[in-house]
Design goal:
The structure is a homodimer. By secondary structure, chain A is α+β, with helices and mostly antiparallel strands. Chain A has 9 helices and 10 strands. Residues 266-273 of chain A have low confidence and may be disordered. Chains A, B: InterPro entries: PurM-like_C_sf, PurM-like_N, PurM-like_N_sf, ThiL-like.
């Protein structure tokens, strides 16, 4: 988004440009969700919306090798919302908090004509932060899980259909267990929120590298956003270790490319994204 | 707001209930501003809106004796907004950041039909946090500055009039210099955002105390919100010290009451707020 860039450009500094901002041992991630722009009320139940808003920010923390600890929640609530609907929102936040051991330490509730959810997650680094910019030429590139399900869910909803309560579109499943275990072997990582194609371009740009694909991926795999699977890079010599850690944490991973010297743009053209 | 309570009640813990949340040496404050609910575009210029959104959160940090360091900004921007309007928003954020030495370390920009600004300020405690709950029976109660100007500005705008660019309603002036110097002598503090009457009730409730007024305050002084002056309490023996520090930092203070044992409600009745 051009306008986003226009605002961020004014504030260039070393903290910006990753999934979260690192200050000492703390990582901060923040996202804003607005009814109409990010979700439609018919698509997700209110507890699913609140849960997903939390998980999406927790995902940013996980992929930097930080453990989510605290949350601040800003909430815009239409006057028309009934108490049982408020309870649903609350339940969604609570479910995510309980699942990840997060304590809500503050926030703000206001009245607005649409539901607005603003989440700030404060996380503590396990050790070193894993950044987007750390990949080296020759590293292997992989992603967790199976990509494409979220886009399928979205398409079904856009057609007026419905998706199951455990669809990836409704309920991202973070791969934190695998990630924390393997973090020390990873050179770069980010979560897949805009689609593997777009996010891969970001990671490569941040690392100043190109890509050579070793596996053909479908358009669905490349374009499906809001997956909250993890895109990550690691030195080829650690391949066995990573595969073992994936097995131990029962996490599917797919090695699909390796990084090269040069710029991403040229290599990507043939993949049409 | 009943609904706010309904959401917060589910998450009762020791972090909640003050201007900001204290975690170790860090203080976190967060507020959400939505066009229509909090501001009208005709009332404030976009740079004034952005500036005020920052200052209001910085105010929360100051009154806890914390120095604002970092900010995360979530921004909802209508597609109709022109680049020069975006620049104005940016300028407002930047002006507040420059003034208080704050670095913007992250955030999120989305498109929405109304302007939404969500600010999280990360601040570092000078030493001990000053809480709402620390007042002791017999403490003196005072406020900084002159109250009432913000309400006057609001009323003028509601009548279709206008207010000067340096009106308190447009540009809160924080009393951080006085506060940081006197913080070690203060037993409790909070900023005046809802009006002295309402905020005094909150401070007394948090401290478990009542109030005996020593000075008659006008309805305007008691009811004017968004002042961002400071309500504070201190032991009577420190009166001279506080008055000297106020003089040194050229900050007007008004001692208007003292705290008493008992509950605020009973003492307040005669003041009709």
């Amino acid at each position: 988004m051009n306008k986003e860039q226009a605002i961020i450009d004014k504030f260039t500094n070393s903290y910006l440009g990753d999934d979260g901002a690192v200050v000492g041992k703390w990582v901060y991630s923040k996202d804003l969700f607005v009814e109409g722009s990010h979700f439609k009320r018919g698509w997700l139940e209110l507890d699913e919306i609140a849960y997903k808003a939390m998980i999406v920010n927790i995902s940013d923390a996980v992929v930097m090798n930080a453990v989510p600890k605290f949350a601040l929640i800003g909430l815009g609530v239409p006057k028309s919302l009934k108490m049982e609907q408020i309870s649903l929102l609350r339940d969604g936040f609570k479910r995510a908090c309980d699942e990840f051991g997060v304590t809500i330490i503050g926030g703000d509730t206001i009245s607005s004509d649409k539901i607005i959810i603003s989440v700030t997650i404060i996380s503590e680094l396990n050790s070193q932060a894993v950044l987007r910019s750390g990949a080296k030429a020759g590293d292997l590139l992989a992603f967790t899980g199976k990509l494409g399900d979220s886009l399928k869910g979205l398409k079904a909803l856009l057609r007026g259909g419905s998706v199951a309560r455990n669809s990836r579109f409704k309920k991202p499943v973070l791969k934190d267990r695998f990630f924390y275990r393997s973090a020390k072997f990873l050179s770069a990582a980010m979560d897949i929120s805009d689609g593997l194609g777009t996010d891969l371009a970001k990671l490569c740009k941040a690392s100043g590298l190109g890509v050579k694909f070793s596996k053909k991926l479908s358009k669905n795999e490349l374009k499906s956003g809001e997956e909250y699977e993890i895109l990550f890079a690691f030195a080829a010599k650690n391949r066995k270790k990573i595969e073992n850690l994936a097995k131990k944490s029962r996490t599917k991973i797919t090695i699909f490319a390796k990084t090269t010297k040069g710029r991403y743009k040229n290599n990507a053209r043939e993949h049409h994204f």
